[in-house]
TrEMBL record:
Gene for this chain: Myo31DF_1
Membrane topology: Peripheral membrane protein
Domain of life (superkingdom): Eukaryota
One of the record's GO cellular component terms: microvillus
Compartments it resides in: Cell membrane
SUPFAM superfamilies: P-loop containing nucleoside triphosphate hydrolases
Pfam families assigned: Myosin_head, Myosin_TH1
Provenance organism: Schizaphis graminum
Official protein name in the record: Myosin-IA
Region (Actin-binding): 190-212
Domain TH1: 429-623
Keywords: Actin-binding, ATP-binding, Lipid-binding, Motor protein, Myosin, Nucleotide-binding
Amino acid sequence: DIYGFEVFEQNSFEQFCINYCNEKLQQVFIDLVLRQEQEEYKKEGIAWQEIKYFNNQVICDLVEKPHQGVIAIMDEACLNVGKVNDEMLLEAMDSKLSNHKHYSSRQVNTLDKDLKHKTQFKILHYAGDVVYNIYGFLEKNKDTLFQDFKRLLYSSKNPIIRDMWPEGALDIKSTTKRPVTAGSAFKTSMIALVKTLNSKMPYYVRCIKPNENKAPVGIDYKRVVHQVSYLGLLENVRVRRAGFAHRQPYSRFLKRYKMISGFTWPNYKCSDKEATRALIDENNFSNDVKYGITKLFIRSPQTLFALEKMRAELIPAIVILLQKQWRGAICRAKFRKMKAAYFIIKFYRRHKIRTYLKSVLEAHRTCEMNMHHKESIIWPQTNFAVRQLEPSLRYIYKRWKAYKLLSPYPRSEWPQLRCKIYAASLLWGKRPSWGAQRMWRGDYLSSPTENTENANYTVALNNLKNSDRFNQVLFSSFIYKMNRYNKCADRAILITDWAVYKLDLKNFKPMKKGMPIQEVTGMSVSPGQDQLVVIHSNRGNDFVVTLKPTTDINEDRIGELLGVISTRYFQLRNSELPVNVSNKFNCMLGKKSRMLRVEVNPQTSTASFRKDDNGGIVYIIPPNVAVHPFIKA
């Protein structure tokens, strides 16, 4: 991150160290990218246009040069006996650096009125001029943490404190020198960093700061041009454009690519340079290369890619030529052993599969003979040969058994059977009658015998389908409902493949927006033959209704309603819908929990709702639809 160069209104020792760090990194960049690039071309005798660039080694020497650099002068001032202040340090710097063209102060250049006397000095960095305030340099450069204090902390009985000061473990005789100053320590670290970078191949990420306000869309062109200039990007581009994409010693080049030419493969009787020239000329790459003293220079990556492609096409044949005899002998011997083992395994596996299939067919034949008992096949014990086959056989058997069970019924009734199976799993043994024996028609309101206003219903249904975009009507019926204000009214219920609607009987329009089936949290019904059903939801206002068939008042539609909703709920959420069958259960009306209980009244002939003394709801039914005895239900 090279734009970490810091220039503030008040620049102190910290900014001095940071800017010195950036100078060193820029010097590494110059050495690795610019200077080495051009020096290599000169060394190899390649025609080259000299590209001028600013070498900031002189600034690095100004800071770090032994005995004469700024850091050396600061260290000398810190080690002097007596009282030495920052002004004296500035005087020493002015005395020793007055002739340096990248250093300036008010005493060195009396005409520079921008610098304060005995307070500021200026260094002409590669990124621009920076004025530093001398006050605080000596204090920040000193390291007053002496070795005896480190040994004291290291001898602590607290293991955490002891681990924090490993320097205290050094012998007193080996640590007689004063602590290294902060500037010297920073310089040593930078030298080590540069040494590490020089041993690697660093990749630079140049960060350009577009503006000083951190604004998302704002470019300070003067600021950007300044950064492009001092980061050396222009010189870098010039060097790259004028240079070569790839270079390699002739010997290394031939070791990799000599199989491409018949002149160089497998051996050649001339120098490496002549062999390389013959290979390049044979493949018509002469216009894109230059021949150095010890290296071949390739200008465009396309030439290198072409060489790699030709090499890649020839390598497999060469490898096969070297390997085929030995590998062939090994593979033939291994194949003979594997073939013998394969025949043994194959015949034994066939024997085990035949034995297992014979047992399965025998069990299947017995099951088919007893099909009227709906018995399931008893599967024989599996073995290693049929472990992968058995799941498929079980799946085929389940499909066959399901087909046998459903074959007596027309395919058009299969969706109805699915709903009846769901209803049976929810109500079997809990409710004496739930309409299993009759045909489930679903959309009862569309029937003229059920609904004399079926034409209005059809129009309203089409309008609702256009607005809510559902596909199918699963159930509809007249209902008698109770609301949160304890008021009862005749309504109609409509269940589609998407939601549950409450309809007004005047025009069959939804009284509210439909409640999605995915929001249904459960259903509650009574164990009798009455048509009470509560559809619970997470909205805090449940549907408390009783179904009202008009063609046959004794027709039980509770099972059909449960089957339709539970089937669709499972399809949407892949989980079972909770269903409660009881004479007493809680429901939510107006976001308040209320107890609903079923009560038999011999004096009534029709079911009705009323409010009890405790704020709950009583559903009154005649004895002919109650469970007998009612109390035990």
